């Protein structure tokens, strides 16, 4: 079907909202069926195809039934002749209602009429055969008629007929009827969508031709969107409008496009029509070819918003609307000269408020928190944008004094330009009264804060309004710059900013008076020139106000500009709603900042309580974010509110907050005023105590270095550094600190006070805190508290800024921070400790039974041993000569080799600043009487060594003796030294006093033990190489001392049964070996040749047979390293006893392995091993040692037992190489006759290949020296791999 390029257009005021279904009532049945048909409308769960031919289920499909005889359808052009843009209004289905019970009537009358109705191919139809009564369902004629009807009008592909009972119809019949109607609608919709798409494609192809008309394209595109909207396919309809908007913007923004009428000049255009698409007959405008951008873009957005609302997506409407308003506002800028005065600002305000109201009414709570927060963010942005434009209008008409000159408002308005009309509005004829009223209003607006100087206020305008307005006057074509910018007529708000971003200069009183005089209206006779004189600022405000009130059509906005009270109400409403929505969204900071703007309005109105609450929220935000500059701007207003409300606690806290800001943000005079206010209230103005947190003003920290160390029950003094942020001295009544224990949470905080009444000066102060006795553990500083009159000050350790600066400084300056993380302990309380460390000077052994110098190291531990008494007691086995002369020397002199190495003794360890006598060079003799010696003064603070002579004479069965040492402060020696219990280690006990830092009130003991040892360790070895009884005896002497030992002479006294061969005196052989020198921990050997003497053995005493070695030696050693000789040339003696035994020389039994009978031994093959056991000497082999013992006792007669002897054997084998088949352990019976023999056989299986050790036979109850291994068995046996299997020997490929 051909489609014309232009179409006759019947304008529509609104788009249809329901699909039309035509009813062809052949037998006048609609009056009866109308009610049940319409009762099932709208259709539920109807499935239609979208533009992409995908099935979409509509929850509700509205349908309207219209008779074909109705005037609405009868006046329309048939569908086949209807222009394409109007097809969406045609019926989408035709329902034919018939009834008949006569076959002839059907053939002659009904059938021809039905043929005529259904011959149109573009019409979707189906026939409903109505049964008027229940009897008709059983009537054969009726059934024949319906059968004939189905055969002629239905087909296999599609059923076009259905029966419907007029009374008592089943639900399934109605569902089937509904499904057939939906099927007809779906087919018609798909066909018409194809037709529209084809037309859109043709129009798009001719888009760049000169004859192309956007109106035709828009009509086709929008009618397609109408059709989708009626079919409940809002997504497809929205997509059509998006494409239409995109194409229109491309056309408008294309270069070299002829400018057309923009619009916006009609009455009421200042009120946005974002959601009022039917405000103007837009379709008629399109038909007439007059498409104005101002109206068209708003119409498109209204249609998009309507579709989004029907989809229940108000958040998307808000998002799109926010973007559209900002974009369209920028579009209005080039056309501002042709538009009414301030239409751009008024349109933005009404658009934001209309959009906010509509979206808020339709928004429902969602489960997703992010979606909800984003919606409230959009609402807040719209309110804030409308608020900004409203403030520009208010500043334009002279209400700028009411607006708070905060950073938020300044940032918004300073970047917002003034209106730029072609002609600035003229001053009205009745301007005198208005100018006088505005003059009085501006004079009444004073914002002075008592006691604190106001900061320089920010500007609310991008440029001087006076210059901008006079430049756009209608009659001003030329003029003098001094006339256009008359500084005498500028108010405070219109003063230009200072150079380099400084604050605007304030007006002097004379200048302000002259300004007020010059603002009076000038009579017309004063204008003598052809050019009118420039308007002053008040005239500009009055002219703008007059123009706005005459042009604004929105009553709410117009009312808000009529008076100051109405302006404040509207401004407060916008600000509060914006803040509330910001609080609901994720932008909490914006909400708090706008709360400050609300607080400013309350402050101007005198509602100080509400203003103070909001200002507290703003100050809390600024303080937490460390925006100190902004905090300094708001705190003075809060302080003024709290002072007038007489809330002294909050007032003092705010004063402290303001004092704690950076120094450049507050003048010194203001700081002195605030400090005087605090001191005055603390001493006179408060009836009850007030607790005040001054952590931001007064900070503190412990002094540097290690923590103070105290012992339990000891008091002390702690030095604390306190930084004060006050500008003058503050006399505190008291100052205290809390100590917090780190070792337990149950200890709690303990309060300690200062020693003196402190006076805090500005900057750094050193305060001494008295520390009473505390429990052992570590303590950190908790909080600093003080009393200033009725004010209780409190400061915490965790402070992010110092008292004077937020940046801090070096530790020596007054701006150092007290912030420590983690906290460093300031006090360490220790358990009662030893004040003296005593240990042996030499760790190696000293000689026993010889006088030895024992070195005792005395190390003071952070304590002075002046006039200390050392008491030395010895235990059993030790002898201390008394009286004797001891020797005392400096530790570093006694052990100089340790000065360059890391030593356990440190001369500077724990030393105190006590006066000390210089130590002497070398030794200092000290007299010991009754085990008591007094230390010299020079040894009171340094480590020293006390040398005393002790001799150890231990019993052989006792442990090495020890020495007990005690130190007492003079003159308090132990009352009864003999009462001390015997000790196995050295001990020390201290009971001393100390000055400011440390004192010990108990007794502490610690044990140490000196070491005594013998000079040698003896090892004996005997070897026999013949049958004559001669033995070689080797005695090895190993040195056990850290000294050189020289053996001068040695003699061996043999036990009975042995005698010397070479030297009857028993000296070693050869004698030229002596003297023999042995170094420290070295060893040497002495050789003796002896012979066994059986006769002497029988005559001697055999109860305790021992041989004794007597050695005479000299020792050359240093007492600083260990053993030494007390007398230079004196020979020392050493004796050692041991027992000699005659080695076994007779072999009684022979065990030998016989030859292996098997050859080619292989893995897995059983092998028989045989061992022959033969007696070499008559008698029992297991009791040979008993016979020797019997001979030693002189028994000449030996009884020979003729019975057989039981010998136990065990087979030693490597289990990884062999497997035994037999008894691994057993016994054999062997006769005691000479030459008796027996054979032991054992079956074994080798497990590995190669040379392996064969099994070995051991006799368990016969000593090894009495066994002869003959014949000797093989050391290794060669084991071959197992025989190959023939089943695996198959050549590859055969």
Q: Any overview of this molecule?
A:
- Residues 1195-1263 form the TRAPPC10/Trs130 C-terminal domain.
- Residues 493-531, 897-923 are annotated as: Disordered.
- Residues 898-910 have a biased composition (Basic and acidic residues).
- There is one protein chain.
- This protein is α+β, with helices and mostly antiparallel strands and 1294 residues long.
- 30% of the residues lie in helices and 23% in strands.
- It has 28 helices and 50 strands.
- Strands 8, 10, 13, 14, 17, 18 and 19 form a seven-stranded mixed β-sheet that branches.
- Helix 12 packs antiparallel against helix 20 and helix 20 (564-584) packs antiparallel against helix 21 (588-605).
- The longest helix is centred in the first third of the chain and has 35 residues, at 171-205.
- The radius of gyration is 61 Å and the shape is flat.
- The N terminus and C terminus are likely disordered.
Features:
golgi apparatus; 1294 residues; TPC11; Trafficking protein particle complex subunit 10; disordered N terminus; TRAPPC10/Trs130_C; transport; disordered C terminus; 7-stranded mixed β-sheet; alpha+beta
DSSP helical segment count: 28
Tell me the number of strands: 50
Q: Any idea what the radius of gyration is? A: 61 Å
Helix content class: 25-40%
- Largest β sheet strand count, sense and barrel closure: 7 strands, mixed
Q: Please, what is the average pLDDT?
A: 77
Global structural class: alpha+beta
Overall 3D form: flat
- Distance between the ends: 86 Å
In quaternary terms, these chains amount to single chain
Low-confidence stretches: 1-15, 447-451, 475-530, 798-819, 899-903, 910-915, 957-1007, 1185-1201, 1286-1294
Keywords: Golgi apparatus, Transport
Subcellular location: Golgi apparatus
Domain Trafficking protein particle complex subunit: 571-660
Main location: Golgi
């Amino acid at each position: 079907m051909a489609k014309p390029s232009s179409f006759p257009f019947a304008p529509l005021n609104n788009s249809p909202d329901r699909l039309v279904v035509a009813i062809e009532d052949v037998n006048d049945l609609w009056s009866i069926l109308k009610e049940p048909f319409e009762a099932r409308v709208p259709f539920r769960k109807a499935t239609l195809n979208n533009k992409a031919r995908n099935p979409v289920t509509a929850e509700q499909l509205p349908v309207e039934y219209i008779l074909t005889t109705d005037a609405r359808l009868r006046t329309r052009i048939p569908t086949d002749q209807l222009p394409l843009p109007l097809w969406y209004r045609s019926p989408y289905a035709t329902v034919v209602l018939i009834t008949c019970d006569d076959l002839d009537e059907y053939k002659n009358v009904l059938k021809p009429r039905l043929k005529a109705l259904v011959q149109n191919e573009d019409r979707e139809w189906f026939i409903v055969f109505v049964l008027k009564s229940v009897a008709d369902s059983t009537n054969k004629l009726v059934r024949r008629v319906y059968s004939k009807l189905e055969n002629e009008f239905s087909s296999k592909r599609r059923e076009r007929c259905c029966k419907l009972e007029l009374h008592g119809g089943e639900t399934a019949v109605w569902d089937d009827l509904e499904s057939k109607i939906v099927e007809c609608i779906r087919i018609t919709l798909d066909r018409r969508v194809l037709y529209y798409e084809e037309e859109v494609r043709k129009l798009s192809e001719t888009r760049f031709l000169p004859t192309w008309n956007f109106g035709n394209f828009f009509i086709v595109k929008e009618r397609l969107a109408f059709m989708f909207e009626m079919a409940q396919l809002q997504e497809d309809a929205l997509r059509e409008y998006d494409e239409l908007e995109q194409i229109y913007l491309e056309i408008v923004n294309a270069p070299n496009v002829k400018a057309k009428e923009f619009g916006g000049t009609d009455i009421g255009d200042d009120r946005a029509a974002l959601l009022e698409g039917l405000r103007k007959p837009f379709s008629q405008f399109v038909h007439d070819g007059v498409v104005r951008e101002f109206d068209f873009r708003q119409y498109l957005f209204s249609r998009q918003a309507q579709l989004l609302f029907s989809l229940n997506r108000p958040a998307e409407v808000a998002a799109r609307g926010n973007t559209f308003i900002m974009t369209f506002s920028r579009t209005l800028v080039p056309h501002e000269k042709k538009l009414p005065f301030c239409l751009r600002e008024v349109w933005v305000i009404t658009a934001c408020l209309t959009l906010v109201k509509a979206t808020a009414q339709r928004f429902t709570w969602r489960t997703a928190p992010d979606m909800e927060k984003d919606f409230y963010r959009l609402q807040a942005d719209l309110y804030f944008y409308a608020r900004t434009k409203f403030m520009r209008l208010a500043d334009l008409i002279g209400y700028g004094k009411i607006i708070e000159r905060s950073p938020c408002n300044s940032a918004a308005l300073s970047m917002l330009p003034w209106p730029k009309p072609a002609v600035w509005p003229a001053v009205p004829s009745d301007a005198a009264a208005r100018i006088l009223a505005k003059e009085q209003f501006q004079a009444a607006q004073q914002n002075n804060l008592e006691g604190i100087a106001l900061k320089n206020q920010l500007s609310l305008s991008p440029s001087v309004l006076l210059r901008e307005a006079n430049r756009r006057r209608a009659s001003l074509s030329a003029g003098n710059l001094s006339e256009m910018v008359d500084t005498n007529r500028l108010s405070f708000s219109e003063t230009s900013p200072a150079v380099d971003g400084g604050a605007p200069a304030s007006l002097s009183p004379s200048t302000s008076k002259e300004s007020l005089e010059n603002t009076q209206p000038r009579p017309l006779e004063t204008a003598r020139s052809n050019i009118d004189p420039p308007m002053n600022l008040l005239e500009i405000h009055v002219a703008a106000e007059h123009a706005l009130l005459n042009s604004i059509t929105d009553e709410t906005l117009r009312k808000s500009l009529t008076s100051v009270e109405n302006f404040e109400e509207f401004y407060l409403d916008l600000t509060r709603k914006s803040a509330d929505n910001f609080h609901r969204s994720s932008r909490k900071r914006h909400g708090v900042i706008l709360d400050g703007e609300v607080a400013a309005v309350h402050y101007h109105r005198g509602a100080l309580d509400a203003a103070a609450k909001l200002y507290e929220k703003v100050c809390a935000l600024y303080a937490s974010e460390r925006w100190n500059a902004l905090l300094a701007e708001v705190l003075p207003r809060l302080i003024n509110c709290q002072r007038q409300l007489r809330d002294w606690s909050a007032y003092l806290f705010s004063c402290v907050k303001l004092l704690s800001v950076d120094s450049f943000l507050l003048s010194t005079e203001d700081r002195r005023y605030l400090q005087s206010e605090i001191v005055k209230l603390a001493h006179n103005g408060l009836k009850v105590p007030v607790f005040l947190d001054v952590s931001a003003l007064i900070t503190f920290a412990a002094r540097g270095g290690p923590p103070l160390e105290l012992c339990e029950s000891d008091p002390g003094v702690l030095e604390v550094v306190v930084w004060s942020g006050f500008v003058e001295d503050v006399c505190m009544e008291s100052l205290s600190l809390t100590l917090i224990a780190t070792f337990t949470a149950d200890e709690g905080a303990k309060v300690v006070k200062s020693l003196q009444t402190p006076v805090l000066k500005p900057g750094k102060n050193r305060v001494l805190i008295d520390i009473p006795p505390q429990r052992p553990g570590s303590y950190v500083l908790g909080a600093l508290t003080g009393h200033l009159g009725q004010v209780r000050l409190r400061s915490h350790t965790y402070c992010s800024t110092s008292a004077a600066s937020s940046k801090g400084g070096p530790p020596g300056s007054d701006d150092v921070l007290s912030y420590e993380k983690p906290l460093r302990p300031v006090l360490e309380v220790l358990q009662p400790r030893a004040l003296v460390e005593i240990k042996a000077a030499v760790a190696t052994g000293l000689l026993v039974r010889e006088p030895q110098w024992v070195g005792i190291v005395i190390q003071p531990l952070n304590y002075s041993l002046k006039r200390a008494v050392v008491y030395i007691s010895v235990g059993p086995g030790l002898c201390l000569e008394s009286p004797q002369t001891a020797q005392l020397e400096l530790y570093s002199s006694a052990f100089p080799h340790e000065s360059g190495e890391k030593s356990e003794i440190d001369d500077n360890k724990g030393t105190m600043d006590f006066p000390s006598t210089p130590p002497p060079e070398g030794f200092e003799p000290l007299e010991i009487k009754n085990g008591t010696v007094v230390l010299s003064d020079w040894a009171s603070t340094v480590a020293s060594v006390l040398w005393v002579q002790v001799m150890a004479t231990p019993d052989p069965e006792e442990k090495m003796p020890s020495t007990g040492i005690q130190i007492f402060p003079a003159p308090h020696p132990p009352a009864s030294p003999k009462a001390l219990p015997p000790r196995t280690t050295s001990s020390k006990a201290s009971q001393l006093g100390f000055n400011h830092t440390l004192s010990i009130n108990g007794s502490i003991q610690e044990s140490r033990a000196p070491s005594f040892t013998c000079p040698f360790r003896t090892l004996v070895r005997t070897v026999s190489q013949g049958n004559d009884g001669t033995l070689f005896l080797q005695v090895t002497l190993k040195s056990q001392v850290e000294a050189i030992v020289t053996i001068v002479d040695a003699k061996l006294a043999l036990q009975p049964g042995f005698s010397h061969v070479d030297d009857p005196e028993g000296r070693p052989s050869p004698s030229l070996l002596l003297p023999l020198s042995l170094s420290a921990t070295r060893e040497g050997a002495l050789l003796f040749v002896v012979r066994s003497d059986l006769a002497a053995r029988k005559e001697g005493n055999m109860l305790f047979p021992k041989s004794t070695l007597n050695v005479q030696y000299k020792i050359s050693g240093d007492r600083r390293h260990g053993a030494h000789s007390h007398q230079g040339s004196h020979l020392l003696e050493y004796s050692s006893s041991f027992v000699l035994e005659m080695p076994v020389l007779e072999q009684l039994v022979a065990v030998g392995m016989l030859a292996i009978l098997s050859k080619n031994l292989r893995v897995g093959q059983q092998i028989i091993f045989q061992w022959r056991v033969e007696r070499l000497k008559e008698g029992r082999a297991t009791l040979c040692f008993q016979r020797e013992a019997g001979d030693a006792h002189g028994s000449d007669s030996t009884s020979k037992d003729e019975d057989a002897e039981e010998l136990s054997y065990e087979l030693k084998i490597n289990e990884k190489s062999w497997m035994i088949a037999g008894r691994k352990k057993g016994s054999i019976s062997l006769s005691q006759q000479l030459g008796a023999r027996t054979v032991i056989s054992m079956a074994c299986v080798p497990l590995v290949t190669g040379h392996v050790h064969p099994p070995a036979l051991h006799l368990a109850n016969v000593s090894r020296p009495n066994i002869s291994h003959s014949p000797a068995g093989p050391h290794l046996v060669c084991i071959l791999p197992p025989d190959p299997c023939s089943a695996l020997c198959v050549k590859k490929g055969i």
